[in-house]
Amino acid sequence: MRFFVERLALVAGIASAQGIQCTDGLKMFLARGTTEPLGTGLMTTITRQIEQLIPGSTTDDIPYPATLFEPTYFVSVLNGSTLLQEAVSEYAAACPDGKMALMGYSQGAQVVGNAICGAGYAWSAGTILPLIPGAPPITEPLPLTFPPLPTNVTENVVAVIFFGDPTRQPGASWNRGSASPKNRGGFNRDDSIIQYCERYGPRMRSYCDDGDSVCDDGTVSRPEPHISYVQNYGDEVVEHLVAQYNSH
Ligand SMILES: *[C@@H]1O[C@H](CO)[C@@H](O)[C@H](O)[C@H]1NC(C)=O
Ligand SMILES: *[C@@H]1O[C@H](CO)[C@@H](O)[C@H](O)[C@H]1NC(C)=O
User: What is the residue range of 88's domain?
Assistant: First the structure.
């Protein structure tokens, strides 16, 4: 069966002029968390299941640094956000019928959020430097704002999933998990940006559990919640991805 599905994926792929493979299945773009080695990391079981359930589905992980230092977190996030925007824009242009899903874990969730919602105040060096104790000074110039992907490019983005998002917005309709709806991530987006996230409505889900201080600011930090999202919500995310794929 697995062999058959892989063969099918090869046959279904249509190479575009830019060398982009359009797939009949779901194209998943993933951004891993801080210090995870290149690859699909903690989200691997989800992508494997989707590749089985939706024949022809393929996964691209964004090859960004995912570092805390060297380069500094926000430089790494900017790199990933830019690479992801390029990947989605190129895929949308080459494959007008190609359905996409974007998933990000921890720092990767911020990367995905920046790419689709844009980013505002958190880029200002004066604001961000005190947020990471021990961070070396940022020498690379960072833009003060980062514009979101235009809607003509994201029409076929059928799902957006965040796990342990540092930019989690309090009270957002897409929040899931046991964290208090009133709590926010340490780098939550400002109100001028949130309208761009709102365009995604039910396509978007952000998982955050009680005690994960990355997305659930103000709580006592425990390590388990931040690394357990796929274990706890993987099946429900797979269901969401399949339903979104089928209904678009
Ligand atoms: C992004 O980071 C990768 C390494 O992770 C590097 O090869 C690439 O040059 C960086 N790109 C930009 C635009 O900074
Ligand atoms: C989206 O619109 C921009 C600006 O009008 C254009 O350059 C780009 O090719 C469009 N992309 C797609 C996928 O339609």
Answer: 2-247
* Best CA proximity match to 216, nearest among 177, 159, 161, 245: 177
- Per the listing, tokens 């690394």 go with 227
Ligand 2 site, CB within 6 A = 92-93, 150, 152-153
**pLDDT tens digits, 187-207:** 777 777 788 999 999 999 999
Q: What is the pLDDT of residues 66-77, one digit of tens each?
A: 998 888 888 899
Q: What is the CATH number of the domain that holds 21?
A: 3.40.50.1820
Amino acid letter for position 57 = S
pTM exceeding the 0.85 threshold for the entire prediction: yes
Residue 172, Cβ neighbours under 10 Å: how many? 17
- Kindly report the protein residue whose alpha carbon is nearest to atom 3 of ligand 1: 64
- Asked whether the beta carbons of 71 and 65 are under 8 A apart, the reply is yes
